[in-house]
Target: Glycosyltransferase
Amino acid sequence: VTEILTGELARGLADLTSPALAQTMQSIYHNPPAIDDAALEKFSVVSICQQYRQLQRT
Model:
């Protein structure tokens, strides 16, 4: 998860307690982070398929 929640998205990481998770969820809900296309690109179908193809070559 820390690989995905980087930069401004790291605000979505919470301690493993119910109060911390609730506070983080409320914060994200009331002030959602901006997610740009470049951040999403590494999780696109094309990008994921390329990563799997690279595994065959190693």
Q: What stands out?
A: The mean pLDDT is 90. The chain has one domain: 7-57.
